[in-house]
Design goal:
Layout lengths: L1 H17 L5 E10 L3 E8 L5 E6 L4 E6 L2 E3 L13 E8 L5 E7 L3 E8 L7 E9 L2 H4 L2 H7 L5 E7 L16 H18 L3 E5 L9 H10 L4 E8 L10 E5 L1 H15 L2 H5 L12 H31 L10 E3 L11 E8 L3 H8 L1 H21 L6 H6 L4 E4 L6 H7 L4 H7 L12 E4 L3
Parallel strand pairs: 1-5, 10-11, 10-12, 12-15, 13-14
Antiparallel strand pairs: 1-2, 2-9, 3-4, 4-7, 6-7, 8-9, 13-15, 16-17
The chain binds zinc ion (ZN).
Length: 439
Amino acid sequence: MLIVRNICLAFVALVCAGESVTAATVNGVRVWRAPDHTRLVFDLSEPVAHKVFPLENPDRLVIDVENTSFSADISSLELVKSPITSIRTGENNQKNLRIVLDLKKAVRPRSFSLAKNEQYGDRLVVDLYDHDKATIKTVEDVAAENNQRDIVIAIDAGHGGEDPGASGPRRIREKEVVLDISRKLKKLFDQAPGYKAVLVRTGDYYIPLRTRTSIAHKKRADLFISIHADAFKKPSANGASVFALSRRGATSETARYLAGRENRADLIGGAGSVRLDDKDHMLASVLLDLSMTATLSSSLEVGAEVLKSVGGLARLHKKRVEQAGFMVLKSPDIPSILVETGFISNPTEANRLASPSYQQKMANAIFQGVNRYFNNNLPVGTLLAARQTGSGSTYVISRGDTLSSIAVRHNVSVKELLRHNGLKNTRIRVGQRLKIPTS
Ligand SMILES: [Zn+2]
């Protein structure tokens, strides 16, 4: 009796395992990309047992599903924004299904089954979490996320290549002197927190004037500084000067832009972007004129600060910011100044301008003037503005953040964070704004 029953049970078990009717099938796959993870959903004919594990070199994720076959079409899956490069499937003799995800980089997997409901059948969900974003975030990323961008300074060393600019005694050439000063100036801005400088010209080659301003636009510059050295017939002429665009130059430039010879929308499309292409001509002219006027008054202000600093170092050719119709100063939306660092045609000044120590002093003076200007005119959304307001910065919590990770990144304690934000516990939610105390 007992024996018979055992045999019977064994027989039943054998039938169950061997029955292909009971094997599940994967009928469909869907993929969803979230900011911090990718979700794969496998549609199943019935519930399955599964196992998920990663493999390295190259990074893969293996999904083993018991007693299942694969009959889904995955050819049109949108994988571009996911960490998955391709999906392979195979079945072994025991009718077990293996799904291999080839990955661009390692992920943290999480998987679970979902029982069928009115809308969907049984599903297997595999979430691929991006590897701890917080730990690989750079200071710049964090600053950018919190709208604390750097102020961008475009430094334009005049002339270059075929165009040597002014020449002085001992074959001292303007294009070399101004590139040296520009490089030193860039270094000063790059070292100062809250600033980033770009060199419009990085070597000995010529850049057309229009291209110089368009490079500044592409880099989203907050200020354009063109560096030059003067020359005059009389060797006695000396002194530094700072130029901004003349009102007449600005006005004629407005007309020129409106004539449609440039892409107006693109030029005005900086931060805070005023689009002109969808405005009528009259309104466009008013907007562009306002932009130009605002830019010009900023140019004159920053120019005055630079002149003040340079005046502490060099004799000034003129006591105030001069205005002329220089082509490189004609950006309607980037304050622009041109610094004539001295007269290269004057033997004494040429020698000074060619010396690295004087070049450094000149760079320091220009930097100080510009820095003073921006500290008095803090651009919204910049790191400089956040630091100056004294109340510290704001941090918007994103997925995966913890109070302690935020504290570490901002060099403050969790306790300080709690107190500064009037929080009673460390529970935080995505999108919540935290005030970061100045450390
Ligand atoms: Zn020049």
